[in-house]
Write a structure and sequence with these properties.
Helix content is 3%, strand content 46%. The chain is built from 2 helices and 29 strands.
């Protein structure tokens, strides 16, 4: 957390691509910060945020539409001793044991620039653990990130982050591989009551007809949603079969994404991938040789179709591209391929041909894809 970071904005990075940026030592005037921090009130280009003395968000007003969200990012912790299966279970009664964590060791603004602002809070958790968290707001995105480092030393405790988003909806949407699952937001039946903790991958989304709130994460896959309350499970501390399970240092990020419209128009899928697969940079060495300013290997022109994997074929003959439809609708799309492509062949997941090879026209291959279908193509290069 003490390392300096160089933040660069205004870049348009094509999918699965490289982008070359020339760096100079010339110093230019820094544009003014678009953020305003006055005590516990923070104004960003997208939101007006009020913090309490513990660093939790007591008010969040989306400036784009005036929507008010009530307390957000309250850290909860409670004793966690399951009736059975210590390492795997969370009991339904766990909710009654969770208490807000308000023992703050320090809080301050550590960065305020033209692209982002970081507000850091350090907590003491339980009796032996500490948590350091940067709340990051952006000049060009409504997303709010919570970059978190925990020294986790407690036993038989569960840590969650709670968001009360004041959203009236009968179900929540949880991403799984190549799609999503809808879960009920109430507990009217025995089946619904059994879903007090459910899984998700990159996002969980609550939305009504015009507005939604997504909770993104980069490695935390358990949550509970009930009556507009979203709680993401962050850490547990079982002692069987491993008496030291999960003890030590943990680093992870979760994020709040308020969006207008549903998860499709709100860009939830895209932001989930952006959090989990961020662009990374490295300095060029002399042996790298000259590189083009920008180069994209493959891309798809439909926003609801995601290129999930690019790999060398198992038999060494060509490149395998796997993609899927994430919006739940039948779609016509074009797969753009390298100019050196000789042929593109539809394949099964086992990379066996299941269709006729096609020669790219104008650098692309048109195809149709059904809701949540995944397709695999073999690209043969000249």
């Amino acid at each position: 957390k003490g390392a300096e970071q160089l933040v660069i904005g205004g870049l348009d990075i094509p999918p699965l691509s490289t982008l070359t940026i020339a760096m100079t030592e010339e110093k230019r005037p820094m544009p003014p910060s678009p953020f305003r921090l006055e005590g516990d009130r923070l104004v960003t280009p997208f939101a007006e945020i009020t913090l309490d003395e513990s660093g939790a968000i007591t008010s969040f007003v989306d400036r784009r539409c005036g929507r008010q969200l009530v307390p957000l990012n309250t850290l909860l912790m409670g004793e966690d001793i399951p009736y059975l299966w210590d390492n795997w279970d969370i009991d339904r009664t766990q909710e009654m044991k969770m208490q807000p964590q308000r023992q703050v060791l320090s809080r301050c603004c550590v960065a305020d620039g033209c692209l982002q602002l970081r507000f850091r809070t350090v907590y003491a958790l339980g009796g032996h653990s500490t948590l350091t968290q940067d709340m990051v707001v952006y000049a060009d995105s409504p997303r709010v990130d919570f970059e978190t480092t925990v020294d986790w030393q407690d036993k038989h405790h569960l840590l969650k982050a709670q968001f009360l988003v004041d959203m009236k909806t009968s179900f929540s949407r949880h991403e799984i591989q190549y799609g999503y699952v809808d879960r009920p937001n109430n507990a009217n039946t025995a089946v619904e009551r059994a879903k007090f903790e459910v899984c998700n991958h990159k996002y969980t989304d609550l939305f009504d007809t015009r507005y939604g709130v997504a909770l993104l994460n980069d490695c935390k896959y358990g949550c509970d949603i009930h009556d507009g309350v979203m709680r993401l499970s962050l850490l547990r501390a079982p002692t069987h079969p491993n008496p030291n399970a999960d003890r030590g240092a943990h680093t992870f990020t979760y994020a709040l994404l308020p969006h207008e419209g549903d998860y499709r128009t709100g860009g939830v899928v895209r932001e989930g991938y952006a959090l989990n697969c961020p662009a990374y940079a490295r300095p060029l060495a002399a042996q790298d040789g000259p590189l083009p300013e920008s180069y994209s290997f493959v891309s798809v022109d439909a926003p609801g179709v995601v290129v999930e994997a690019v790999k060398r074929a198992e038999d060494g003959n060509g490149i395998i591209v796997r993609l899927y439809e994430a919006w739940g609708m039948r779609t016509r799309a074009v797969l753009s391929v390298p100019g050196s492509t000789r042929a593109v062949t539809p394949c099964t997941a086992m990379e066996d041909a299941c269709g006729e090879a096609a020669v790219p026209e104008n650098g692309g291959i048109p195809f149709q894809i059904r809701p949540f279908e995944f397709k695999t193509f073999r690209i043969e290069l000249a």
